[in-house]
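Reminder: ligand-aware prediction takes two inputs, not one.
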Amino acid sequence: MKITEVKTILTSPNQNYLFVKIVTDSGLYGVGDASLNGREQTVAALIDGYLAHMLVGRDPLQIEDFWQLVYRGSYWRGGNIMMSALSGIDMALWDILGKVADKPLYALLGGKQRDKVLCYAHVLGSTNEEKIARAADYVKERGLKVIRLRAGLPAAHGTFGNQRGQAGPKVEPWNPEEEIAGTIDYFVKVRKEVGDNVGIIYDLHERFSPEQAIYIMRCLEEYRPYFIEDPVAPDSVDSLRSVRSKTAVSIGFGELYKSRWECLPAVTERLADYLRCDIIRIGGITEARKIAVLAETYDVKMAWHGPNDVSPITHAVNWHLNVSQYNFGIQEDGTTDGLIKNVIFGGPVYDNGYLFMKDGPGIGCDIDEEAAAAYPFRKAYIPVCRQEDGSIHTW
Ligand code: GCO
Ligand code: MG
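Here is what comes back for the chain with magnesium ion:
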């Protein structure tokens, strides 16, 4: 079997996505998700101008070899653009393998160890007050066992504030010092609303300094967060070490990691309880298998990143990993009922706190290319945060 064509599909139903479709001379094809919020066209250019040429004529089942060829063979390894491109391609190749074997992806990964996947959903609303008021009903109506809150940025709306058709990134004010008290208060109020039996994940989204994060986390210890997500940015491992050594709450970390090697300190020093890598950033399924095994070795659980800015294809891959890997922790359920459902078919379905998926070959998703073309790409930017003195702060 040989690859005959590699297509990139940029589309913008409810937001921008980049898909990869790899076609073979057998008639079988595979689909993957290479979406990188705010950088989709650059990833597409790398695939179209470079990686597609390396794929055409190859055996699609030589998946590991292609991964190594791109990662190590190209000398200029890694980075968000390269890894997103490689991940989308890697998913499409595994999808082809599943179709050849006529088995779902989880079967290729060793088979199911669980039938359903515990997940958490974001409490939505335009203000914290609104979210506090509806948290309990939201949990009850949906049967959620775990919810997720995010600290700060009251001005953010839409897809994490990401608006299409703007000339440049929107600037949002963020003054961490002023937000500490409100950040603690928000969590405490939601805890009181939902009671003690609902897990609450709190995404600090790297919005505070290490010492501010430590203070917030210590104040929240008695309110039992399920885990605190991204208390600090990944750039300095020492910051994470410092937070870990001075706090007693569980930590979820890793959505910005771009390789297995970046994960090492968090795993081998157990600086995090939940490793939250994004399969589109760390190299797709081929790499996700290795990362999960590494984490299993150190008793670290997986909580794959699953925001709503990745497509149902990625949510489906997360699901296959979750049912087949031993050290499953929990899954972020950012699946959306938005217009993306007109473009991508298949993917996990939510029911009463868990995600389920129908059996089918490969990843179990397909693309309607005509529908995708009906939603043309529109440039969008992740907003930037500026502090009162005008300086940039991590968004
Ligand atoms: C999460 C993430 C997202 C990111 C988004 C950026 O935990 O779901 O923090 O909310 O902000 O993926 O594009
Ligand atoms: Mg996050």
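The pocket of magnesium ion (ligand 2) is lined by residues 203, 205, 229-230, 255 (CB under 6 Å). The chain has a mean pLDDT of 95. We will return to this case in the review session.
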